[in-house]
């Protein structure tokens, strides 16, 4: 009886899964076209899954083992089951393997069940709560119905009732695993996830066999040439098809939610919910079935959308409220944590582009800042001719005069800010101490376009970028050095698409290099305990975690690391134009970050970003002082041990080390 | 019974502005406020239609600035803008240095709107602030300056709120058609959106160009900050200080010198500067 029923069940489930897959694919194909190398993607998919995805999953060891057992067991069991029970290849070897695979899966599902007993708040409930039971039903029933195949039990053992019970359990398991995979159950993540990895919109973010780490964080340019094209994303179907596919891959694990600073601050944003809302929108319907944490302060069930309906309503509610999108600091903590490699920030900026470029609805100070950028090339609306006033006494060499230099020092808009001017002066002092040949653009420099782009104003970004690139093209230099990670990121990662390719260094990286080349010497550190705050645009965006720590170590500082540091660093709240759009929450993000600092007991927090400095210094009653690494270095400078003074002629910089003088 | 309210035709005169710091062209602040007021009319006078009118030379720069106004269509709601005819701007093209007034008069007289809104003063050119008056004179329409709000329009009569110094308001009834001018007391302009601005069309009409003879006689020089009258506050109490801060600068003790020699004039100015403590 089992021999007859099993193949029917298996092939029925497979057929239903195929129909479901076709329907799901139709949903994704509502999106705009995207250029994807389908074949190469499919070929690369196993590596992306086994290496890159597991690199993220493995940050949670228990979960990673659970997933390996369950998913590995399932894939093997499913294949073998089709052979053994579906096609009747009942040989004992295959049967034995099938027993092993389903046993492994069963063990995995026990761990899934344990995790579901007291699930952390970030996990979604709802249908996800039945998943361990479905996994058990599947693995157990496959195991039991395979026993006769290998001859452990006679084929006619037990009664009809027992066999029926087994078939029923198997039907449930098959339903969840095959049918649910393509019809929108929790197992959907396996189907959509595999294809999402293959057709990812940023294929360059995956590692490769040559040891490339794979990093792709620059936003993609909007084509502004095509004047009839709508700008940004208005409806779910305005996303590209592979973005929609990506949303569908979400497992609702809530790692993004746990990492999101805006969510923690009680602002109305939860990246997990946002992705789920896009899934709701792509299929059409309301968010009432969502079973995870809501956007803080926004009850579930009040929003609904459809594939061709607006995501943000001009009046009233639609799928998502505008303030949700404007709460994001673009810190990328969610993207960094997402095991499915979903690109939340891209999606958020896409929707912001529409709100700014088509609605003209950038909240709070947004419109003013954008107008300033258009009229004065800086967000504060300062006279562009006063960009160098802070350096009136420093005699900085201008590119316009010298035409070429080793280093082009990019000042950033911090040049207009009195606090950041102290950092810049410190940096100049350090460069001079190391005898670096540098020059600045001075009044020819413009805002990099970072804030305009992240506020969705791609037009102003491209205008600023285009003019900066034209200015830079006039001069010759080896590399750009800047103390602003936002400029660093934009110049290094986003100008390339517009024709500007440069070697850009953050000042901490450059100082570390100078130190390693023995061009700087420091007095020993006498201050108190220190911790270091990783700026998002330096760390997660550019992978630079080492150099700032290296410099601090060279200064003789032993760091008291914060719990959330390195790639898990918590944003200061200053990115993505968030201080400009200023969406209210229950707490302030910089307050939370200064609290992290306080927990280490540090008396000083070293930073490497003007925005972080401003945000963290703005915290009242802070327990720690905020200093840029450039300032710490400038304070510690001492003459190099065997000074060049010993030798009458100054050797060309960069070719001499202290040792050689001996 | 609700008084009968019908939508009205509103023409907003817009000029090419100039950013006070960088001098780049932009939508002029006051004209943009005028357009904002017009777009807000949808609430008080449903069914109103707004048209944009500019007379001047056409160039890439000026076109970009004018499109800044067209980008305001998207702002506050589909209703405002989309239904109000903001997809185009009528550009009466003239050679550089032509007089805009005859061209505007001719255009407005040919198809008179009920309400013409304009900024009080242009940001480039003569910027004398006389344009609204000259138009009113030639068209024979009433003029209200410093408009803060249009409250309602009934049977061809508009109830307007005029802004006076120090936050005071005066309610006026004006028979339409009329010209109103707005200054910084009017509501600030909404954000201009790039997409709609770029897609909107410019309807270019050629008009006979009369050279602006007055302008030709002018000498243009970069503006300097206007000197402010010094306010020397000698207040003892907080109340006095507050009163002094809120008070209008009194010009009462001014003195008009007529028919005096240059020496006498200089003498008088010198004396004043000493009194004010500017010269010691
Ligand atoms: S978006 Fe990624 S991190 Fe967030 S819940 Fe989904 S799978 Fe998890
Ligand atoms: S980028 Fe940062 S603020 Fe934005 S959703 Fe992700 S975690 Fe939250």
UniProtKB/TrEMBL annotation, chain A:
Residue intervals passing through the bilayer: 6-22, 68-87, 93-113, 134-153, 159-179
Keywords: 4Fe-4S, Iron, Iron-sulfur, Membrane, Metal-binding, Oxidoreductase, Transmembrane, Transmembrane helix
Gene Ontology cellular-component annotations: plasma membrane
InterPro entries xref list: 4Fe4S_Fe-S-bd, 4Fe4S_Fe_S_CS, Csal_0991-like_N, Cys_rich_dom, HdrC_iron-sulfur_subunit, Helical_ferredxn
Residue intervals of the 4Fe-4S ferredoxin-type domain: 241-271, 316-347
Molecular-function annotations in GO: 4 iron, 4 sulfur cluster binding; metal ion binding; oxidoreductase activity
Record-linked PANTHER family: IRON-SULFUR-BINDING OXIDOREDUCTASE FADF-RELATED, IRON-SULFUR-BINDING OXIDOREDUCTASE FADF-RELATED-RELATED
The protein, known as: Fe-S oxidoreductase
Provenance organism: Halomonas korlensis
Automatic annotation (TrEMBL), chain B:
Keyword presence, Transport: yes
Alphabetical list of Gene3D superfamilies matching this protein: HUPs
Membrane-spanning intervals of the chain: none
Pfam families assigned to the protein according to its UniProt record, in alphabetical order: ETF
Domain Electron transfer flavoprotein alpha/beta-subunit N-terminal: 34-197
Keywords from the UniProt entry: Electron transport, Transport
Taxonomy, superkingdom: Bacteria
Entry keyword Transport: yes
Residues in coiled coil: none
The name this protein goes by in its record: Electron transfer flavoprotein beta subunit
Organism: Halomonas korlensis
Taxonomic placement: Bacteria, Pseudomonadati, Pseudomonadota, Gammaproteobacteria, Oceanospirillales
